[in-house]
Amino acid sequence: MKSALYLACAFALTSACPAGEIPLDPGAPLPKPDMKWMDVSGKEISLNGAKGSNGLLVVFGSNQCPYMVRNQDRLRSICALAHKNNIGVVMVNSNEANRADGDSFSAMKAYAAQHSFQYYYILDKNAELADAFDANHTPECYLFDKKSRLVYKGAIDDSPGNAEAVKTRHLQNAITELVAGKPVTTSTSSTLGCNIKRNR
Question: Boundaries of each Thioredoxin domain copy (predicted)?
Answer without folding.
Answer: 24-180
